[in-house]
Amino acid sequence: MHDVTATLFFEQLLNGLQLGTMLFLMASGLTLVFGVMGLINLAHGSFYMVGAYVTALATASTGSFLVGLCAGVLAAAAVGALVELLVIRRLYHRPHLDQVLATFALILIFSEGTRWLFGSSPLWLSPPEMLRGFVTLPGGVRYPLYRLVIIAVGVVVAIGLYLLIARTRLGMRIRAGESDREMIGALGVNIARLYTLIFAMGAALAGLAGAMVGALQSVQVGMGEPVLILAFVVIVIGGIGSIKGALFGAILVGVVDTMGRVFLPSLFRNFMSPSEAAGVGSAVAAMLVYILMAIILAFKPKGLFAAHG
Amino acid sequence: MKTIASLGLGLLMTSALTAAQADDVKIGMITTLSGGGSHLGVDVRDGFMLAIEQSGRDDIEVLIQDDANRPDLARSLSDEFMQRDNVDILTGLIWSNLAMAVVPAAVRQGTFYISPNAGPSALAGRQCHENYFNVAWQNDNLHEAMGAYMREQGFERPILLAPNYPAGTDALAGFKYRYEGEVVDEIYTQMGQNDYAAEIAQIRASDADSLFFFLPGGMGISFMKQYENSGVELPLFGAAFSFDEIIIQAVGSAAIGTMNTSQWAYDLDNDANRAFVDSFREAYERTPTLYASQGFDSANLILSALDKAHPSDQDAFREALREADFDSVRGKFRFGDNHHPIQDIYVREVVEGENGQPTNRLVGLAIEDIQDVYAADCQM
After folding, report:
1. Considering only CB atoms, which chain A residues are within 8 Å of B185?
2. Considering the entire predicted model, what is its pTM?
3. What DSSP character marks residue B377?
4. pLDDT digits (tens, 9 = 90+) for A179-221
5. Hey, which bits of chain B come out as E strands?
6. A15: closest chain B residue by CA
7. B202 touching A (Cβ < 8 Å)
8. What is the distance between the alpha carbons of residues B6 and A229, in angstroms, rounded to a whole number?
């Protein structure tokens, strides 16, 4: 029994990590857009959906998941850039409430538009043949190969983002933008182009997350909104504007959410009947990340890694 | 999609012209047409409207609204239908938690409610009502039948999985009632959850010999795709809600070989069903799901009662509904004392169809003339 619990714990840790890396892809774009441009973008989940839909369609027509994935990411970036040029650009100097209203409208437009084009039945998308099945890890844990690949992609993106922001000229401008928006404009940086670029990059990352998760779950209208809520929790916990905060927050939320779902019901079972424990346990598990957020905010009101000190 | 829209619109317009007549009938349909799992609502609506269209009656007005799977919205839509539009009959709800928010208040105010899907245990038992009729099933029925079937097939250690909402707890209660043996564990998930890695790990860690699950709509698609690649190889069983034609085609090859129980199958051999499946395929260019069959039966039940009485004559109309004098696509159909069906439940297997896509094939009878256990608690 001890052995079973240990492998179960290890497998759940991997599951938490996998959820965390996906949340990181969503949260990094969200936190950059908020940190650099001061914009609350509720429509970020729509780019997640666009990425998944385009990947599903392109995979179906070309037969190659990799081509589909590239198409999905590029399409999400293109849609992101277009949305920035047409709508978001007009919102930077408006109050947050206007931004929330306008980007909420974008959610409705994207959702209804997708339903109008593709209907409300989910689209079919599966991981490529070579990534199906499971691998046996040291210690005898069987784990789906595709989920391991997702973790790997998340790690690569995290390293790439770190290098981009710490080592390149673009990264320098992004950091400068976070500290003082007016000043980098005064220094002659083309702010408008920088903003479009950051926005498209965030959208591409969301599209990547949507495409990869779409193959695991189902590609359907409204798939982005539940993830978006968790991504907001992540950036609030991590500290708005901080990529490092988004990474730590995402993994924290991923692991806590996954562990809570499994181990809380069995904890409650010690002093309740099984069906009651399952009910109460999963209800508390659903609240766990929000409780975590409340506790962290009580001690660190600006999140774990506040970008502005 | 275009045919449906124009069909609905046409109906609204023809009835708007004749709205002045006092003996016209107004039906308010509140169903889930957007968000995850909206194909259930779409199929109920399409099946319902097909029957109304086939009846050729122009004195029936059907008002359709989307509840977006939100109990608060469903409640306010029902108030709107009853107070502003003065509908005679309400119908359409898919989800049991929405039905619990709408139905008790609606029937108390003297409106008939004909359920084409949700059948929560409360409405079959203590909170049953003379104006409430369920044409589909009490929630437990299909799960009970699968419990009986798995017991008969000799499975000894099933593990159970369902979302944490009224129909989810009903599902597992129903399964256990007829399975009668010990189950290894019961796992409850969040409603609308899309990632089942944590639950699959729990299933792997258990020593179960089979898995019974209830995950309607998009939840079932996500689960089965993830289960296929997990390396867990327990045989899968469930009620038809996790195996409708749309779900298994989205799941693909992972669905093949799974077994499910249903009160209806598109290859069920009777005249009413053959005519229904053919006309549905012709009108909407897809194979109907059980939800479409339930929508179709609901409309035909209402039509059969309207032939005998107008809903304003409540007692006569109620009596006409009780008689269930229509050709159900399931073959035989009758109501128990609590206005829930007494019916046969079948077993279907998911097989590879002619075009290579998975499809359901009728295997046989799981249980005959099943009646829900809550009927005994119903005092009408």
Report:
1. 274
2. 0.79
3. G
4. 777 788 788 888 889 899 999 999 999 999 999 999 988 888 8
5. 25-31, 60-66, 89-91, 112-115, 132-134, 158-163, 185-189, 210-213, 236-239, 259-262, 334-335, 341-352, 358-370
6. B197
7. yes
8. 37
